[in-house]
Amino acid sequence: MAADSIRLLDLVGDFVTGQVDSKATDVANGVKSGQFSILQLVEALGLSLTSSESQTRGRGVQLLSQVLEECYTSLSEREVEVLVAFYENRLKDHYAITPHVLHGLKALAKCTVLPKGSAVSILKSLFQDVHVQSLMLAERSCVYNILISLMESREEELKGLGPDFVFGFVQAVDGERDPRNLLLAFQIARNIIHRGYNLSQFTEELFEVTSCYFPIDFTPPPNDPHGITQEELIQALRAVLTGTAQFAEFLLPLIIEKLDSDMQNAKVDSLQTLAACASVYGHKELSDFLPSLWSSIRREVFQTASESVESAGLSALRALTSCLCRSVLTSNSEDSLHVFLDLVLKDCQHHLCEPDLKLVWPSAKLLQAASGASYRASLIVTAVVLPTLLEQYSSRTQCAQRRTLLEVVQGFIQPTASSWPAEGEETVLQPFRKSLCSVVFSALAESNASLQITAAKVLTKLGQQPGVLAQPDVEMAVDHLSRLVLEEHDAKVSLAVAECAGSLSRLHPAPFASRMIPKLKQEIFSEPTVREDDFDLLPGQSRDAGRQRCIMALASVSTQPSLVRESAPVLLQMLAAAHTGSRIFSVEEVVSVCCSLQRIADQTPNTEEMGHFFHDVVIPRLLTLSLHAALQGENESGHSSPLIEEAVLSAIVPVINTACAALQTELATTMAAQAVYLFLDGDVSFLPENDCPSKIQLLRSQSWTQSQLVCLLMACVCSLPHSVDIPEFDRLLGQLEELSCTSTHPFSYTSAAKCFAGLINKRAAGQTLDGVLEKTLRRISVTLDNQSSAQRIQAFNLLVWMTKALLLRYHPLSAVLTDKVFSLMSDCLLASQAADCFELLMSDSPDVLNRSCHADVRIMYRQRFFAENSGKIVQGFNCAEQGKKSVYLKALSHIVNNLPRQVQLTELPSLLPVLLEALSCPDQVVQLSTLCCLQPALLDPPPALSTQLEALFSRLLPLTASPSMKVRIASLRCVHALSQLPEHMVLPFRAQVLRALASPLDDKKRLVRKEAVLARGEWFLIGSPGGR
Amino acid sequence: MKDTLAILHRLSAHPESRCWYVAWHPLGALLASCGGDRAVRIWGKEGDDWVCKCALSDGHQRTVRKVAWSPCGHYLASASFDATTCIWKMTNDDFECLTVLEGHENEVKCVAWASSGHLLATCSRDKSVWIWEVDEEDEYECVSVVNSHTQDVKHVVWHPTQELLASASYDNKVCIYKEEDDDWECRATLEGHTSTVWSLSFDPEGQRLASCSDDRTVKIWKECTSGEDEDSTDGAWKCVCTLSGFHGRTVYDVSWCHLTGALATACGDDGVRVFKEDAAADPRHPAFYLSAHVPKAHNQDVNCVAWHPKEAGLLATCSDNGEIAIWNYQSDA
Amino acid sequence: MSGGARLENANPLIFQRTGERLLTASEEDEDVADPIDDREIFDILLTPNYSYDPEHPLSLEELNVVEQVRVKVNDEESTVSVEFTPTIPHCSMATLIGLSVKVKLLRSLPARFKIDVHITPGTHVSEDAVNKQLADKERVAAALENSQLLEVVNQCLSTRPA
């Protein structure tokens, strides 16, 4: 003990007279470990604390304070009481000591054992003895932190101080300039207001001392280590100013004044503050200021050139209106909402009728903002505005003006979240139902495309609100839409019509089923009436285009089961007709029929009923038609079914994929069994029209038309949920392996390999699976090792798909397979395919092994693959002889290109040299994928890039003249991205780049020119006044 | 047209910029050019090639619009958008900036030496024409500022022998000045063009003046001498011929060859044209025919044409694409 | 621009932008040459949603300053003519808008093009004076060497908010 106290004295001596700062930590550690108590420290400090030298006293207090900051949690109440008394006393000491005293008090204020009464006495001493604003920044911060700590723990005691506390704070903060301290001061002020401290006569003082910073104008210094933003300060101050209705009489005039400012930021801040306080205030606080507030808001919205001012103005108006709406509910006094809205209407309504419509948009936006505040407000506004607008619409003849008016109408008919009618309230549009419909229908009948599009949008909005459109209106709408589908060839109108029909059909399926679908069907199957070779026929006006729109529309309106039951059979019937040849449909048309079926499968609600529909009707029908086509085979004379075309089968796959992926377990299980037995044993019993020859063996067939149907097997079994058991698994895999290794028909063997991959990806891990995989791998290896084998390409194909299947699920065997693929990069025949296969390995396959097929895909498998293999590629690149390096670059660019952007960014520095090399590789595929992976990285370039710019430009610029359009576009995008680099880095290249970009401006392809224009425009701005 | 205009040389004189103007040295061995790159370049022939002998790039802060050699060939003046005119002295193949003439409020558009070499004229967008006197000590003094135009003055040119000055302007007019009682005055205003007059050129004898304009025409003006025409006074000029229908866009420059009498034009339609006077026509109503035309002489606007002072048929042109081209014109007529 | 100038025409008639040009199959075909057409020039002038009018940070089309019908291009003859309509007949910014349009085209089109920028006939009091000024390449060149003017033009052409 004695030793300890001697040690303590030594430490104190070293700190106080020896000026060894580090001793403070030693003392603190001693206190924390219980070596000595805090009172022993005070005792040991005795001489220093009573020294006549203020510097020594200061040093003594400093040591004590530093120790307290470390150890305040372990103090006893008694110790705290003694220390508080000591420190309060020290506040009266020499000014040089005050900073240390404040640090000590700050620590003490955080003590949970602060004795009752201490908080008040600390504050009294502080307010009495310290002139806060003559302190340094850090000490002022101490004072604010003391206040904050005490407010957290001693709220009741502080409130006992009454208005004195507020007054003390006001005095302390008055004149504060530092943004960090202001954030603290605003926090205190906010606490005062929100926690109900007594402001009484000091309300205005508190407002003054904080509102003098409004609006905040603060630009953080460059490289500001504190990271305080203007936005933080704005938010903190706004919370204070808008915190209480007691400030209303001061704040509202201030806002009106600041709105006159020339500074855009001040305007925006004022408007946002107004919006914020309107949600706190009642109509009493607002009422006196409403006319001036309105005229300021109106002026800003009418005159502004800035979107942010406009949107802040509109939000403020909406907030004011909401506030008045709330008051309506609570007060019986004069209806101030009506008075206010009358004002708004008076100033805005007439602009809707002026001949040149010059102020129509700002007026409409203001009215819409007010209207959107509540149901009640929207009732008042629409009752006045809608009749005006509808009447204007009818009196105008110019399409542009009509469109403008209709767009304005559109803004009024869509209720906002706060103006949506409550239960039992009817839509505000009720009185205008008829006239709205007649305007919309007349617009739909115009020949002006943009008017039609706007009308379709308005109709969509009307249809989305229950109760607005009556049955006859919907029927009329459906007739208009049907006519537009059949007749309108403008692509944008068709798109708008499809969206509108889709949206309406959700709420009103019946008329679509009874009126539109039959019309579409009739059009699809009608005999041609016009001559197709008519010269006058524009693209889009031909019958094919019309039929195409019908096919798409069938998908668009299939939003409800009742509609799917009508539309899908039409599409299936088209396929059947195409198959039999009773109608001639082109392959493209058949493909688009499949696309529509896929859309339907995709958007259909996932119900048991729909599951049955696809399981019982759609899928069997598709299988039957394909099977019949396959058995019929190639017909050398006359008609051969389009359903044997690869393009068509590839389009059927996603239909079945999507439908199967959504099947309920029970249906999925029967689906699996039916498909497997169909393909293994030729069991056609579940198919309609199953009059097939017995003994069909699709997977063993020598006919390509039959063997390629394996893609449909894949669609049926590879997209089912995990839980579904696939029967005859081993036999199935065996036949798939055989087909994929021996078939000479690429679509057949690739589909077989994919099906194989899809199955093993989901199969439970274990010896059985491993046994099968190893057997297959041996077969693949043997074939690949035999350079003269005719089936190497097939074996390679199976290897790649198998690798992918296992890679995705992190199966241990995947490493072996990957190495096998790597080894093929030096193969003389397969090198190029081996490089390309990384694209397949790293990207999502659309029809198998993806998450929507319920495949086993581990997150971040790409990163893992990259981490494990990029080194091998770079090494392979470095070792390869010159002519063969490109294979590695291609592989690398495929991998990097598919990595998530964040990973690309971290990996880029190390890969940059190789990627630059890849840019000079003559292979366009390598160039393209390298450019694609560079471009996003250039937007946020790694520091490593700055030293490589010279090399980068010298490789990039020649690529803008590449024979490949895609390379030209990608290189121009990179050049564009580089323009955003810091000026000092890119300015030296400006002349060179501008010269190089002159010829792409005259590229023969428009898409290239577009990129060149963008890039060159940006480069011109570099180093030019006003540019950057 | 049996007459031909054949390309001899093409040089990239002011790359990545435009070449505004070229001027032959009076002895013909050197060619000066200037452009948007703020530089003046001096070109000379080495063997069969034209090479840049010298680049004067520190004289001006902005585009150098025109250059002019003094008649003695020892001095070169350059007029710039930076509102100044530099006088360069040539010693051997080296140039030294002798003095900078300041005074114009904004862009100086043109500079020209009188045949005596003692007078210099400049003009500017500030609408004024300044006459400077040069003394034996190479000191330049402004002796007169004339404000006869209401707009931008585009070009000034001296009479080949007399102290008579002509100027062309954005106000569509041409003015002719003479000294009168120690002050320079506008003696005649030539009106007829319907848009900006870009350039002027006197014929070898100085009796006629050719002007070219944004209105796509070239006009020939003749001084009326007493007795020739009833209602004209001495010193008045009238338009005796208008070449219209030949040019597709603005005619930026015109040059009258003092050796052959051929008239060349530089046009914004990228073409260079040479016109010959029809010898059979009435001298009071001269007629010109298109003798040679190179439609795409340059792939951008042609800004200037300049006939070689000593070698008949040699023509220099320059263009917005920064090029200079040297042509050989041959005529059977 | 100064506060006074800004108020001159605070609320032009705003038209909705024409939608994006739809991509055609031939545009994606390497072997087909796509001629430069009116719509392309129009898109250049509006790309990508910035304004030439310092008074209004909106695109030209929204302001109806330039309409599609008033762009005429002839790719074979390498000529482009653009007529722009200032928002109101007295708009003092007409020259600046015209200059910005011209500069944008100069920077975006192949050098072979002859570019004419005019005010739509009958829409501006000083139509002829502005047109003559815009057609004078010497004045345009000098204007672009004036850093204050260039600054305003560049701001108009900048895709980043000023």
Q: What ranges of chain B have pLDDT less than 50 throughout 5 or more consecutive residues? A: none
How many beta-strand elements of chain B? Answer: 28
Helix count of chain B? 0
Radius of gyration of chain B: 19 Å
Mean pLDDT reading of chain A: 88
Structural class of chain A: mainly alpha
Helix tally of chain A equals: 50
Number of domain modules of chain B: 1
The name CATH uses for the topology of chain B is Methylamine Dehydrogenase, Chain H
Task: Work out the radius of gyration of chain A.
Answer: 39 Å
**How much of the sequence of chain B is in beta strands?**
over 45%
Largest sheet of chain A: none
What amount of the residues of chain A lies in strands? under 5%
What share of residues of chain A is helical?
55-70%
In the CATH scheme, the class of chain B would be Mainly Beta
Assigned CATH superfamily of chain B: YVTN repeat-like/Quinoprotein amine dehydrogenase
Q: What percent of the residues of chain B sit in helical stretches (DSSP H or I)?
A: under 10%
Organism (chain B): Electrophorus electricus (Electric eel)
WD repeats (chain B): 22-43, 57-92, 101-142, 146-178, 190-222, 295-333
GO biological process, one term (chain B): iron-sulfur cluster assembly
Family (chain B): Belongs to the WD repeat CIA1 family.
Report on the structure:
- The complex is a heterotrimer of chains A (1028), B (333) and C (162).
- Chain A contains 50 helices and no strands.
- Chain A is mostly helical and 1028 residues long.
- The two termini of chain A are 70 Å apart.
- The model of chain B has no long low-confidence stretch (mean pLDDT 93).
- In chain B, a hairpin with a 3-residue loop joins β27 and β28.
- Chain B is mainly beta and 333 residues long.
- Chain B has a single domain (4-330), classed as YVTN repeat-like/Quinoprotein amine dehydrogenase (Methylamine Dehydrogenase, Chain H), CATH 2.130.10.10.
- Helices cover 0% and strands 56% of the residues of chain B.
- Chain C is α+β, with helices and mostly antiparallel strands and 162 residues long.
- Chain C has a single domain, classed as Fe-S cluster assembly (FSCA) (GMP Synthetase, Chain A, domain 3), CATH 3.30.300.130.
- Chain C has eight helices and three strands, in the order ααααββαβααα.
- Chain C has helices spanning 3-6, 25-28, 38-46, 60-63, 94-108, 127-135, 137-143, 147-157; strands at 66-74, 79-84, 114-119.
- A three-stranded mixed β-sheet of chain C has the order 1-2-3.
- In chain C, α5 links the parallel β2 (79-84) and β3 (114-119).
- Residues 1-17 and 48-64 of chain C have low confidence and may be disordered.
- Chains in contact: A-C, B-C.
- The interface between B and C is medium-sized, with 25 and 12 residues.
